[in-house]
Specification:
single chain, nine-stranded mixed β-sheet, six-stranded parallel β-sheet, 19 helices
Length: 581
């Protein structure tokens, strides 16, 4: 730990309250003193003149469950002020596990498909020497060293596979199996898991509904019974407001099962803001309001960035999730030679055109080729910086054939970029101000060759607060810090307050930017070589402290790895004594 006196800065304390000039003293990993004109007491002095001093930022939705094992610097997060990350989202977690190795591979395959991460990395870098979640937590604490604190959910999909094996994909659980899942969830929550994450959306690359979609009401009820025994635990669920649009029905079910319970609920995608979601926004809004009126502690997510931005042929779920399983055949092809052979095959092209016209979801990116931008060419052939629609029109081609031609000409490692989905900015701003919403949703750590969500907090600080002034800087910092710490019951962090963890960010507002994505060739391909992932140059912060240790300073990652596992706790409250009789 580094005892430090941060001098001459402007404190934005994470509560949403006004900023104020102050010095901050850090001692033994904690905030020891806050005041004006504090004098050094032998510690290192950091000059924050012209800078904001804020709590460390919390990444509220990441998938570093695997990457933390093989990319311990967690680039680019330290340079964006991230000090705590939340993992185990969307029903996906690395524990618990079934003892059968083949069924463990199912969980690995789910991670690999839905998070676009090569399966070989999970097999090569993770020991998989646990069964219960508590054993997984112990393995992380024993073997993983990272620069950022981490908290993690236990995934409902993992629970089902651990108990039911392959049957988890296709049937309801028996009473004994439900009891076994409840026991495993209890083990996880007792060991410090954030709570339970659940997936009511996804189908895999073979169009199989994920196992949690087969859960009956009795199963959910038993799991909710366990959560309710742990007041600091929360329940996260992702519902479908993108593809099959079953979100309203899921909300009806959750209202029925959660009414009268003291369970905090986070609904990912609960209030859809994108233009193509207009038809489902009103019913989702109505159900959210009904649940609030029924006394359910429901928190929708407030994502200030589009989640997905890049489509490629190496490892992408976009085609399958657009319901185009013909183009997904190219993604599944093991070699680039096989990918190219398919793209050139007349029979495959005919099937691809039919799928494009008759199968894909009309709201998907593929159905809107005017918004697909040909930007990243492997070999520079081009053309680049035009839309797929323009490329197709210029050649008199169907969009599917045009994409196949462009990929063949430019190389199958090329990528196309999706223009940002238009969204309801006014409603987003309302959500960011709502005291019960979960912000800074980025998907960081997933989709390594599709996007890198790390660093999206910079967009809230720059575009929304500094440049367009759609939200105050104090509120933006609150969304990234104190509000999230309160939601997740991580009460020892999130505000600049004496006694809190010294997770602190110092930055000059005029210097920071949300940097553009760029290819970084440092990702183990699992085959003895390197491949690329998307990353970003640092925002940068002037200083990022995690538990009192600098992880980013002087424009660079320091190499320090002070990150720790953190668990939710019920906030201690002071009660007035009853008057004596």
């Amino acid at each position: 730990m580094t005892d430090m006196l941060i001098k001459n800065g402007t404190v934005i304390d994470g509560t949403g309250g006004p900023s104020y000039p102050a010095d901050v003293r850090v001692r033994d990993g904690l905030i020891a003193e806050i005041g004006t004109d504090l004098q050094p007491q032998g510690e290192r002095v950091f000059d924050a003149t012209g800078c904001k001093v804020t709590p460390g930022f919390i990444e509220a939705h990441t998938h570093y469950d695997g990457s933390m094992w093989w990319q311990p610097d967690l680039d680019p997060l330290p340079g964006y002020g991230t000090t705590t990350m939340i993992m185990g989202n969307c029903g996906f977690s690395a524990a618990p596990l079934h003892p059968d190795k083949a069924i463990q591979r199912e969980m690995i395959g789910i991670f690999s498909f839905f998070e676009d991460i090569p399966e070989q990395l999970f097999l090569k870098h993770m020991p998989w020497d646990w069964l219960k979640w508590s054993e997984y937590k112990a393995a992380m604490e024993r073997q993983v060293r990272v620069p950022i604190n981490y908290a993690t959910y236990v995934g409902h999909i993992a629970l089902r596979l651990a108990v039911m094996g392959m049957d988890a994909w296709s049937r309801k659980a028996t009473p004994d199996e439900i009891a076994a899942m409840a026991d495993l969830l209890d083990d996880a929550l007792a060991a410090g898991a954030l709570g339970l994450s659940c997936n009511l959306v996804d189908h895999d690359g073979s169009d199989r509904p994920v196992p949690s979609l087969s859960a009956c009401d009795d199963e959910l009820t038993a799991l909710f019974d366990v959560i309710e025994r742990y007041p600091a635990a929360t329940y996260q669920v992702i519902v479908d407001v993108f593809m099959r649009m079953t979100g309203p029905q899921s909300m009806d079910r959750l209202e029925r099962l959660l009414k009268g319970r003291s369970i905090r609920l986070q609904v990912a995608g609960g209030l859809p803001l994108l233009e193509f979601q207009k038809q489902i926004r009103e019913p989702m809004e109505a159900r959210m309001l009904a649940m609030q009126e029924a006394g359910i502690d429901i928190w929708p997510t407030a994502a200030h960035v589009p989640i997905t931005s890049v489509i490629g042929l190496i490892k992408s779920l976009l085609f399958a999730q657009s319901n185009d399983y013909v183009w997904h055949e190219v993604v599944l092809a093991e070699t680039h030679e096989e990918k190219a052979r398919l793209l050139a095959d007349p029979d495959w092209r005919a099937r691809a055109r039919d799928s494009w016209d008759n199968k894909i979801w009309k709201q998907s990116a593929l159905a809107n080729p005017q918004n697909l931008l040909l930007i990243d060419s492997e070999n520079g052939t081009g053309p680049i910086n035009i839309s797929l629609q323009a490329y197709a029109d210029a050649r008199g081609l169907h969009a599917s054939d045009a994409l196949a031609d462009w990929m063949l000409a430019n190389g199958t490692r090329s990528t196309i970029h999706m223009a940002p989905w238009p969204k309801d900015e006014d409603r987003l701003i309302e959500l960011l101000h709502d005291p019960r919403s979960v912000g800074n949703i980025s998907d960081a750590g997933a989709h390594l060759q599709m996007l890198c969500g790390g660093g999206e907090n910079a967009l809230l600080l720059t575009h929304y607060a500094r440049d367009e002034k759609l939200i105050s800087l104090e509120q933006a910092v609150h969304v990234l810090t104190g509000k999230l710490a309160g939601y997740f019951n991580l009460h020892d962090r999130g505000t600049i307050e004496v006694g809190k963890r010294a997770d602190i960010v110092v930055f000059n507002l005029d210097e920071i930017q949300r940097r553009q994505m760029e290819k970084v060739y440092d990702l183990d391909d699992g085959k003895g070589g390197l491949t690329w992932r998307f990353s970003r140059k640092a925002m940068p912060t002037r200083l990022t402290l995690v538990n009192g240790v600098p992880t980013f300073e002087g424009g660079a990652y320091t190499g320090a790895v002070p990150g720790e596992f953190v668990a939710p706790k019920v906030e201690a409250r002071e009660y007035e004594a009853e008057p004596a009789e």
